[in-house]
Amino acid sequence: MPKVSVGILGATGSVGQKFIELLQQHPWFEITALAASERSAGKRYSDSVTWIQSTPLSPQVAEMQVRACEPDLSCQVLFSGLDSNVAGEIETNFARAGYFVLSNAKNHRWDPDVPLLVPEINSDHLQLLERQRYKGRIVTNPNCSTTGLVVALKPLYDAFGIEAAHVVTMQALSGAGYPGVPSLAIQDNVIPLIPGEEEKVEMEPLKILGSYENGSIRNANLIISAHCNRVAVLDGHTECVSVKLSRKTSEEEIIQAWNNYSAEPQQWKLPSAPAKVVRYLREENAPQPRLHRNLDKGMSVVVGRLRKCALLDYKFVLLSHNTIRGAAGGAILNAELMVKKGIIPQHSELSTQY
Amino acid sequence: MPKVSVGILGATGSVGQKFIELLQQHPWFEITALAASERSAGKRYSDSVTWIQSTPLSPQVAEMQVRACEPDLSCQVLFSGLDSNVAGEIETNFARAGYFVLSNAKNHRWDPDVPLLVPEINSDHLQLLERQRYKGRIVTNPNCSTTGLVVALKPLYDAFGIEAAHVVTMQALSGAGYPGVPSLAIQDNVIPLIPGEEEKVEMEPLKILGSYENGSIRNANLIISAHCNRVAVLDGHTECVSVKLSRKTSEEEIIQAWNNYSAEPQQWKLPSAPAKVVRYLREENAPQPRLHRNLDKGMSVVVGRLRKCALLDYKFVLLSHNTIRGAAGGAILNAELMVKKGIIPQHSELSTQY
Amino acid sequence: MPKVSVGILGATGSVGQKFIELLQQHPWFEITALAASERSAGKRYSDSVTWIQSTPLSPQVAEMQVRACEPDLSCQVLFSGLDSNVAGEIETNFARAGYFVLSNAKNHRWDPDVPLLVPEINSDHLQLLERQRYKGRIVTNPNCSTTGLVVALKPLYDAFGIEAAHVVTMQALSGAGYPGVPSLAIQDNVIPLIPGEEEKVEMEPLKILGSYENGSIRNANLIISAHCNRVAVLDGHTECVSVKLSRKTSEEEIIQAWNNYSAEPQQWKLPSAPAKVVRYLREENAPQPRLHRNLDKGMSVVVGRLRKCALLDYKFVLLSHNTIRGAAGGAILNAELMVKKGIIPQHSELSTQY
Amino acid sequence: MPKVSVGILGATGSVGQKFIELLQQHPWFEITALAASERSAGKRYSDSVTWIQSTPLSPQVAEMQVRACEPDLSCQVLFSGLDSNVAGEIETNFARAGYFVLSNAKNHRWDPDVPLLVPEINSDHLQLLERQRYKGRIVTNPNCSTTGLVVALKPLYDAFGIEAAHVVTMQALSGAGYPGVPSLAIQDNVIPLIPGEEEKVEMEPLKILGSYENGSIRNANLIISAHCNRVAVLDGHTECVSVKLSRKTSEEEIIQAWNNYSAEPQQWKLPSAPAKVVRYLREENAPQPRLHRNLDKGMSVVVGRLRKCALLDYKFVLLSHNTIRGAAGGAILNAELMVKKGIIPQHSELSTQY
Questions:
Q1: What is the share, in percent, of chain A residues with pLDDT greater than 90?
Q2: Which of A248, C255, D38, D42 has the most CB atoms within 10 Å of its CB?
Q3: Domain assignment of residue C348, yes or no
């Protein structure tokens, strides 16, 4: 089977590097284009990047020439790790020109015709693509903290209903990109603010858990309150969550709802799909970012410490790899789902039949 | 004025060291005895301790001989930094023998005749001492995470009433003592469990905010839910708090309640009293442990980021120096209050007139 | 081909865990026994260990019963991660009873009949085994800091001769075991002492680079001076090395000597052998522990920054994964070499024909 | 006594902040001007700075208006924390206009008429000022790693002679300024390169230890080889040093040479002078940055672990606070010396009689 040709927008940035790391050996996708800002355009990739991944850069990618972010790249699909101050317009340009754009940026997440997609949760939202008037298509994945939260909430939402959630995050450094957080700012410290983050965590789950009705999404009806903090962890966002359920239930039923949760990516064994969407650990001090962020290659959301909450109903801790499940890996899983569903064609012409 | 002679129980441990650091230059107190476990007893202090404070040990203290924790020490007051697995009985023995015991351990906190004292909050609870049948007396200070929380809640409790609070802590390493948390366990990591801590944070504020009525404390009526985490910070516990108030109010009224809060230690300018009990910072990303933990010599509780909570009424972030305000400094302030009130006499005989 | 049955002494410790992590999927070896101190003996492995590896423990190993360190274990080969205060006698007992003991402890390293083995350097030292009078055999691997140093020196030693080396190490936390270095001791800090380490780094290379002559090892003739420091890095020892060569040469010749160096483990493609023994990186700020410690699955010694030294001849930086190349992985490679050479038989009887 | 009016060039940067922190309460100097890049000019200081010091900014300084770096500032003395890519010309302009410029930048360090001054070492080099043809004067302090090294070497240089030194540094994050080193680059890592640093450490001591002869400096005759590393420490450079002495001596004589070393700043008790220039600690694992960097308010160079070197004569470890002794504090001490010597006049007219 021929591989789908993919390009990366923002290839030199932190998310862009993660896309490359995950796609270097991908069974379905082949990197054929790298694009970044004007400053890098024209250079060899290895000359324009400060590579900070622990997996070495493959020689083929190292030698590729970085292009400008203009819609003349030789690929069908574009993974966008662009910064939100430029992503909106560039992604629109590519979609207009006929490319499939899988974006990690916030700009198009709330467009009414753009799915805010988590394949295990709302693959039916892909129906929104029929409304898009681009020659290509745009699909977004959520904010990195939203992803872990909404994946852990979904099984409970389906089984018991959720009225409210309170979440406090302890987010990893890689979420801020590179150079990102100065070492002098975070060593021996906690920063209790991530600008714009709390709003995303409070709002995005409402769209993701919402229902597709007649060509648009009706937001879910639950209240979320978020405090977001930066801590001195390289990768993996930890979140302390309290939930108020619609229907009373037991701890074991909740754990069962998590452990049994499965969706299309698991059934179809998509290359990036975790064996278990949510993995509940019974050790009393789990999950921990350094120990558990890479379970299922960083695509599982790991949960632990379920117990009663004196204020709402239950509380627990979740962990999600922010640059894999919460960014590059999530976007790649979105693309895999779209290939499997025939939305992204496996030949070089653009499919038009969704 | 002659200094009050004080001793330290558990002098080689992490809290014990902090007592020494804070008492080395104290205007009212003079260290005349150091006691620790049998393993250290008989040795020179500097030979029995792994000193981990950045203030050097004074030569006088370095040369003192460590004694066993038996009630034949030459001092009036004992500050106890003992571990809770031995503190209970030892402290009782000293109180029986006529010493004033100021304990940082949990063992006696819930004794009905023992004040769980924060001088700015419940100095009237010292009336409980009349009920104690020891020849000396025992007074306790709260858990380090409780202290920051309850100091920040008190002005709101008085001004508006509090029905519920939800708190997620990010606690410093020094709270676990020495050797405490292994570096391999916490570097590049968060540990989402501190055994026994959540129970203390949920319960202790009820006694502290409670009212003294006819010789006993009637607990305050509010609900607290706590998640406690360990993070890679040396000193300073950060807490994300959401509160439900009894009476609706504005952000500015809350800030005013904090900024105006003052109590006996401030009026009397006790040596360890912070100028401001609660210090509200208006910078959008404050408080931060590395930057603000030492304000007012580590005795102020620093608050920031007050904003509406989608679920309860308001949310904010607080920071409190866990080994100063939340442990050694808090116990010393308790002792200062007791001296000022004449409970601890400033001569070598035991006062009996409280 | 039937697998060789192996056991692990000190299975719950930090090195013991690394042995398990590396052996869980090994093509030649199968874990059939776990042994540890009396405190753990009789328990399920998962109940007796604080697992701190990021690779999950396999269910089979988790369920194994931990045994005492007595020579009645059902395996042919024992990997020892024992602490040196007990290793000496226990290892002797096992060797006497007929086991092959591959030890990471220092106790037997200087026994005149025990090879201090690095397969790429001195496999001829295995001839010492003929002198051993045990029913089984003991082979040791060097100290973790020695290993990286001596692997980087060997190609230069062969090609140009080395008269002297000056080395300053910046060693990882995992080298101190678990719980090991307290977080309060190392965060925001450097500890400029690792007791006993400098002596090992100065002496062990002399034996390893020595020549086998008539049943004993004649130490190499070079002078090494070492300063050893602990830094806040999880894994990977970094070493700043200056060398005085016997024969003058150019930088490119030195790099070529490193890049071309290969030995039996590479020729035989032993399972744990790195493709390149020494990997020279030309990036100006390489090697770095977080980025390069896992090259070749942690078995390559990574070198960079070769340049002239104003005092000796050349200086460079090396990096070696201390618990893989420098401990468990090194011992496993030793065992692989011994299997390949027929010293360890691949059937259950003890070979006697070396 | 009226205070000398001082300004700070590069006031918003990391060194600039340290100047402010140290000068806010200075007995001799009063901050009357703050200058920074065009981007900050015209703003209130507190609006233009990301204050990262743990001492709060004083309200007076917070309210000062930042000026451009042009020689119309109302002060006599300028402390320069400018980046070296702009410092050279700006400092020259100020000197020409009649200001005393105390620079922390490298640009003028090798000017033949500019002292590279460490008051305890080479105050006689101030005679070079007679050769300067500026209306004002320029004096520089050395690189932060050089300072610690040369202060520790000086007593040995005087007492025994030094032929060669080998130094490996482990340098703190604050040495790179703010934002400086990205957290993703240094957490769980060591970076074995600080561009340009090794050259400074190898060369600057030669001028500092050199002798003033007929209007110029004759460099000292010793060889230094340096490896410079960045480690995850907030403040305090640690250096592992080996020295070859001209005259053989004992460890105790060396320790005595350090402990007895004293110079003009100590005799005159200059406000920033440490009580002891070099402080030798006998604890076997000292010095450590977190524990000892603030001894003597960060102005003492702390030494430990003196022992024989197998290659040169002796080796030891030194620690120096890089932004205090090695930068802002060093420059302030230079200015204090110049005031004491009458070079900087204590009235508002420029002295011309040195």
A1: 96
A2: C255
A3: no
**Residue C268 forms part of a structural domain:** yes
**Which chain C residue is nearest to residue B177, measuring alpha carbons?**
C184
Residues D332 and D273 in one domain: no
D74-131, pLDDT tens digit by residue? Answer: 999 999 999 999 999 999 999 999 999 999 999 999 999 999 999 999 999 999 999 9
Q: Return the residue of D nearest to C186 by Cα.
A: D290
Question: Which of C164, C166, C288 is opposite residue D192, by nearest beta carbon?
Answer: C288
Cα of B5 to nearest chain A Cα, Å = 36
A152 and A271 belong to one structural domain = yes
How many distinct structural domains can be found in chain C? 2
Distance from CA of B232 to the nearest CA of C (A): 8
Q: For residue B71, give both structure tokens.
A: 């009630």
Report pLDDT for D176. 96
Least confident of C87-96, C277-286, D49-58: D49-58
The reply to whether D194 and D133 lie within a common domain is no
Q: How far is D168 from chain C (nearest CA, A)?
A: 7
Q: Active-site positions of A?
A: 144, 237
Nearest Cα neighbor of A44 from A23, A62, A57 is A62
C27 burial (CB, 10 Å; 0-12 / 13-18 / 19+) is exposed
Same domain, B33 and B161: no
If asked whether residues B239 and B274 sit together in one domain, one would say yes
Rounded CA gap, D73 and D69, in Å? 8
Interface residue of A183, A293, A322, A323 to substitute, partner D, most D CBs within 10 Å:
A183
Chain A residues closer than 8 Å to B193 by CB:
284-285, 305
Is A350 a domain residue? Answer: no
Same domain, B184 and B196: yes
Active site residues of B: 144, 237
The interface predicted TM-score (ipTM) is 0.95
Contacts of A56 in chain C (CB under 8 A): 295
Q: Amino acid identity of B281?
A: L
Report pLDDT for D351.
Answer: 42
**Rounded to whole angstroms, how far apart are CA atoms C165 and C224?**
5
pLDDT tops 90 at residue C143: yes
**Is D40 inside a domain boundary?**
yes
Residues C203 and C300 both lie in one domain: yes
Q: What is the CATH number of the domain that holds C291?
A: 3.30.360.10
Q: Residue A240 CB: number of other CB atoms within 10 A?
A: 27
Find the domain containing D22 and state its range: 4-142+328-340
Burial of C39 (0-12, 13-18, 19+ CB in 10 A): exposed
Could you tell me if B82 and B61 are in contact, meaning their C-beta atoms sit under 8 angstroms apart?
A: no
Q: What pLDDT is recorded for position B2?
A: 85
Tokens at residue A30, please?
A: 């082949």
- Contact at CB, A295 and C56, closer than 8 angstroms: yes
Give D225 to chain C, closest Cα distance, Å: 5
Decide if pLDDT at B354 tops 50: no
The question of whether C237 is a catalytic residue gets the answer: yes
Give the confidence band of D350 by pLDDT, cuts at 50, 70, 90. very low
Partners of D166 on chain C (C-beta within 8 Å) are 166, 242, 311
- Do C302 and C184 sit in the same domain of this protein? yes
Asked if B181 and C181 come within 8 Å (Cβ–Cβ), the reply is: no
Chain A interface disruption, residue of B183, B189, B199, most A CBs within 10 A: B189
Determine the residue of chain A that is closest to C53 in CA distance.
Answer: A291
